[in-house]
Amino acid sequence: MQTTLGQTNPIAIGFFLFFVLITLGITYWAAKKTKSAKEFYAAGRNITAGQNGLALAGDYMSAASFLGIAGMVSLSGFDGLIYAIGFLVGWPIVMFLIAEPLRNLGKYTFADVVADRLKQGPVRTAAAVSSVVVVTIYLIPQMVGSGTLITMLLGLPYEAAIVLVGALMIAYVLFGGMLSTTWVQIIKAGLLLIGTTVLSIMVLSHFHFSLSDFFGAAIAKVNSLTKGTSEAGTGFKMLEPGKLLAKPIDTISLSLALMFGTAGLPHILMRFYTVPDTKAARNSVNYGTAWIGYFYILTFIMGFGAASLVGKTIITNFDKKGNMAAPLLAEALGGPVFLGFISAVAFATILAVVSGLALSGASAFSHDLYANVFRKGKTTEKDEMRVAKIATVCFGIVAVALGILFKGQNVAYMVGLAFAVAASANFPAILMSIYWKKFSTAGAVASIWTGLILSVGLIILSPTVWGEVLGHMTTTMVAGVATPTPIGIFPLNNPAIISIPASFIVGIVFSLVGQEKEAEAKYSSKLARLYAGVGAE
User: Structure pTM?
Assistant: First the structure.
């Protein structure tokens, strides 16, 4: 297969400029409507359930999902589905346990809910630090991915691409706030769903919509590429589990992080404050889940399509992790024009996600730390918005610096790390604050810090970071061949199976030891607001 990937693509540049002009126009329109803190943080709570559902789907359908899962399936087959399924099953947890109480009790950030009946200072400090850590970790792979993608597709130098993404991200959030960010997400989600639907139909039509031909071609392609090697005749393993994750306990731990991490991601939780009431919050999850589920089915088709029609050799020539599988498949079936469109969509995906992340990080700093911890609530909306905008610029600069610092690094593991941290530090505290009367300030603070420190620490000590990134390797025999294998002080690649239970246990123990009668009384007095929305903003 001949490819133009890696060369300057005028069609991709045209689509990219069109998207940027449209979104900057939206930002100009949103800037005229964004005057108060409620408009900046929550789009004035005027987003409909359908719009918010599509924006939620847009937040979730990141480059890690679009490029990463399709690439993972193209190289590992069935096992790539664990990410798609793990991401998807997190949504019922959000819908049934989190969405409505969060909308009823909160205002702008998830710390509003956790600290609602507890002592504001220590709880908001812990929650804000946790949010900033999750957002920062999530930002790094997005920025590195955007730099690599733009360099490969548009021909810009890596550093210039990173600065461009950072500048656009700051502009969207600084001037348009949540309203601009929401509409950028909606447009990007629409383009992504259209592009991936067309690509999947082209794949299936190539095999005359026969699933046996479709999967058979992937097996045959692997067999032809591995002929004469130690992996000869192993194409059938594309349809079996165990190729990507060999240890069952690693699979369970990763699944826990993906399932519960969704309910702890700050930029996802923030979206429930943009709708007018709890009914809209619940319905927006329904819409978002439907779009996300549909999208993940398409990534499975694209992954196997790339395995069949492009092949592992060409895919890994561009990226060892397979992240270019979807663009290569687009070119194989639709030529340079379709490659240009899919490339621009991939770029729009990254740009929209980093904008949402920057807004949630800035909100944690301005609303939680500045307004409620440093100023103890004695500030004006104007001051809080000014700090939020300064924080947005700072986040943009930090994102650009991290993107350049991590240039050329394999940072795919950081998405899993972000989910593990969110599931360990944020989710237990949110859940216990909503449903457990005896949850106290000591319990909340201990739970958040335990989940945060334990999850980050164990991942640094895992084979993924300690071995692959920091270079601690050993040699093992695989099918008679000596193979370099990463080793870690902590044996699992994802710590969720340890850090999530630890966060719950510590939160429960500290709450029982340091009982807080005032907090328990406040819980009883707010049940009507929690379950029925009485008095909710």
Answer: 0.87
Element (H, E) at 129: helix 120-154
- Name residue 432's amino acid: M
| Percent of the chain residues topping a pLDDT of 70 | 94
CA angle 330, 54, 412 (to 5 degrees): 55
Within a 13 Å sphere around the CA of 80, how many CA atoms are in the beta-carbon half?
30
Distance from C-alpha of 248 to C-alpha of 455, rounded to nearest angstrom: 19
Distance CA 69, CA 483 (A): 25
| H or E element in which residue 484 lies | strand 481-486
**Separation of alpha carbons 146 and 326, rounded Å:** 15
What does the alpha-carbon distance between residue 139 and residue 101 come to, in Å, rounded to a whole number? 28
Q: Is the pLDDT of residue 410 over 70?
A: no
**Measured distance CA(279)–CA(285) in Å, rounded:** 10
CA gyration radius for the chain?
23
List of residues 6+ apart from 527 with CB closer than 8 A: none
Element of type H or E holding 485: strand 481-486
Q: Give the integer Cα–Cα distance in Å for 352 and 357.
A: 9
Cα separation of 80 and 320, whole Å? 15
As separate numbers, helices (DSSP H) first and strands (DSSP E) second, the chain gives 23, 2
Residue 221: what residue type? K
Buried b (16+ CB within 10 A) or exposed e, 286-319: ebbbebbbebbebbbbbbbbbbbbbbbebbbebb
Q: Do the Cβ atoms of 431 and 101 come closer than 8 Å?
A: no
Query: Among 354, 382, 385, 355, which Cα is nearest to 367's?
Result: 385
Instruction: Give Dmax over CA atoms of the chain in angstroms.
Output: 73
Quick: pLDDT tens for 109-132.
989 889 888 999 999 999 999 999
What 3 state SS string does 68-121 have? HHHHHHHHHHHHHHHHHHHHHHHHHHHHHHHHHHHHHHCCCCCHHHHCCCCCHH
- CA gap 195, 92 in Å, rounded: 27
Residue type, 47: I
DSSP state of 174: H
